[in-house]
């Protein structure tokens, strides 16, 4: 389990997650327990969304790429 040490890091993470489309935001939040809950497995994350664990893995990967893009845009002053 990962922990965020600095409040500034949490603020940035929250900002990037909030920029995601609603479904991706819900999946990332549930998968990593960002709402204060326990991080869930791919299988447990998939059940409420009615998709397979593999599809959740794909959505998580896409969401993390998007968030990385937001980070680089912010570095360049575009966000």
How are the SSEs placed, and which strands pair?
Layout: H1 7-18, H2 22-32, H3 42-46, H4 53-75
Rg estimate, integer Å: 13 Å
Question: Residue share in helices?
Answer: 55-70%
Give the overall form: globular
Biggest β-sheet strands, sense, barrel: none
Gap between N and C termini = 29 Å
What attributes does this structure have?
globular, mainly alpha, 4 helices, 65% helix, 79 residues
Overview of this protein structure:
The longest helix is centred in the last third of the chain and has 23 residues, at 53-75. This protein has 79 residues and is mostly helical. The N and C termini lie far apart (29 Å). α2 crosses α4. The protein has helices at 7-18, 22-32, 42-46, 53-75. The model has no long low-confidence stretch (mean pLDDT 92). 65% of the residues lie in helices and 0% in strands.
Question: In a nutshell, what does this entry contain?
Answer:
With 79 residues, the chain is an all-alpha fold. Helix content is 65%, strand content 0%.
